[in-house]
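Retry 2 of 3 after timeout on previous attempt. Resubmitting structure tokens to design endpoint.
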């Protein structure tokens, strides 16, 4: 006869999962707050203040131009994930592809000033500083607003982690009790194993329910992030989700346990991809 799991143990497991999820989400909230404060400080203390120093310095305009160049390359590397070793002509092409108008115009201006042979006037330096300052402030404010947005998503993320973890726990218990099921692909053998232990069906249904709920939140998170991104970033995010759906369809197995296990791993894989995709600055807290 199959062993019956006590409701007390189920309750204890659920409480343990909830506590773990609460701890994870508390850490996330603290990191988000720290990031918000960090970006607010950056607005005043790093890039903008450096531009002010350059503007008010007594250095030659050629030297000022080089200082602006270094600062701009650093900023674009951090906020647009570009290589600091790209030339301005390469950056113009890159920002054309991304449909980033202001950064592209700034790079075109730098390209012109460096290679036109014209005298670098105070007016031209001020124009360059003004254009870069506009890009910096726009993107820093965008980051702060996004971080505040993700803070508001905390309850939804908490549910995602709970459902995903619950599915993992159920599948792990099935695997511990029925090790022969893990790699079995023969449908007749699978039926024999399940008939010998009927509770597997209920456990798989339970895991499937948790998995579907986690999946629903996963899609909801994607749909809430997507409209907030520029067109070029929307395209890249859409490609990631398309690949995830294609891999999901390509799971070929008659083993219901193995199918859920692979689907869970895929969800993990692509949640991390979306995390890393966002310039490695917001989602990498997970």
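Retry 2 succeeded. Sequence:
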């Amino acid at each position: 006869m199959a062993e019956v799991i006590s409701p007390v143990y189920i309750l204890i497991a659920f409480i343990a999962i909830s506590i773990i999820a609460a701890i994870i989400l508390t850490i996330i909230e603290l990191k988000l707050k720290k990031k918000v404060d960090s970006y607010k400080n950056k607005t005043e203390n790093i890039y903008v203040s450096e531009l002010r120093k350059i503007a008010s310095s007594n250095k030659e305009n050629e030297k000022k131009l080089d200082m602006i160049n270094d600062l701009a390359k650093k900023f674009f590397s951090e906020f647009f994930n570009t290589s600091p070793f790209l030339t301005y002509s390469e950056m113009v092409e890159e920002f054309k592809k991304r449909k980033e108008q202001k950064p592209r115009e700034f790079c075109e201006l730098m390209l012109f000033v460096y290679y036109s042979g014209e005298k670098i006037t105070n007016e031209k330096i001020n124009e360059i500083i003004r254009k870069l300052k506009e890009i910096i402030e726009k993107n820093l404010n965008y980051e702060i607003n996004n971080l505040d947005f993700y803070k508001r998503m905390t309850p939804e993320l908490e549910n995602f982690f709970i459902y995903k973890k619950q599915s993992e726990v159920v599948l792990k218990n099935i695997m511990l009790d029925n090790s022969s099921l893990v790699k079995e692909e023969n449908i007749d053998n699978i039926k024999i194993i399940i008939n010998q232990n009927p509770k597997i069906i209920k456990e798989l249904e339970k895991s499937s329910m948790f998995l579907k709920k986690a999946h629903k939140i996963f899609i909801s998170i994607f749909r809430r992030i997507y409209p907030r991104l520029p067109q070029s970033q929307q395209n890249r995010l859409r490609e990631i989700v398309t690949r995830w759906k294609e891999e999901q369809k390509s799971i070929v197995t008659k083993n219901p346990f193995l199918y859920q296990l692979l689907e869970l791993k895929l969800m993990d894989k692509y949640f991390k991809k979306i995390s890393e995709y966002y310039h490695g600055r917001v989602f990498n807290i997970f």
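Attempt log closed. The chain has two domains: 7-29+153-285, 46-148.
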